[in-house]
Amino acid sequence: MARQSDKPASNSGPDLAVVWRRIEALRPDPANPRSHSQRQVRQLARSIGAFGFNVPILIDRRLQIIAGHGRLLAAQELGWREVPTILLDHLSDARARAFMIADNRLAENASWNDRLLAQQLKELSLAEVDFGIEATGFELSEIDLRTGAAGRLDRLGKRKPRPSAVTIPRQTLPSVARDGDWWLLGNHRVGCGNLADAVAEMLSGDDRVVVVLAANPAAADAIIRRWQALSGSNARHAASGRGFEPPADTMQAADAD
Description:
Blueprint: E1 18-22, H1 38-51, E2 57-59, E3 65-67, H2 69-78, E4 82-87, H3 93-108, H4 114-126, H5 140-158, E5 182-185, E6 188-192, H6 196-203, E7 211-214, H7 217-231, E8 236-237, H8 248-256
Parallel strand pairs: 2-4, 6-7
Antiparallel strand pairs: 1-4, 2-3, 5-6, 5-8
């Protein structure tokens, strides 16, 4: 049974009620211009599984879907038999179709505040939550990159200028990665240099893979080391299968310094 809240006396629109309906009773709109990849459906399913079906599917008087095609596919992925719906029978066919477009398009016009997003993701990463943080729609590798970048920006903003009298050169280790290398980070891949053709081939598949292209070997090293520290796993070179470790003579030289 649906529970409705009292509508204010002012003109606030029609009464809307949430009604659970069986999935097979709903009709996807064959003219829906939005498509949903299998990857996005899995992300939606992960979110619904973690937080619940909090955004009902919007339907017209023929039970045809106006908004929520992706959520319906996610519910089917989860094996649900019923989903929450809201009937928009106050809209004409033309208004329902225009609303379907607006509902998708207007969301695209928003943008992220990268610093605040990274702050929220970092707080969630450190909190003891009972769900996977990927339920936010961001993969672990992207969360790591965003939170790491935010931390570097904060440190740069708070850093005090050093005296310019003496500058001591800082010795850095030679990079392990080389231009043209692919490194395997579990299911994910980090490439270095111009690897556009290889990336296009991987992206054309349906595997749940995050591909990161580093601008130079040092950037690739930093990403791989950060992933190893967080995951406790070891990256491996895609071609040779060797582990990601600096050469022994390099490490000895660094210890000697």
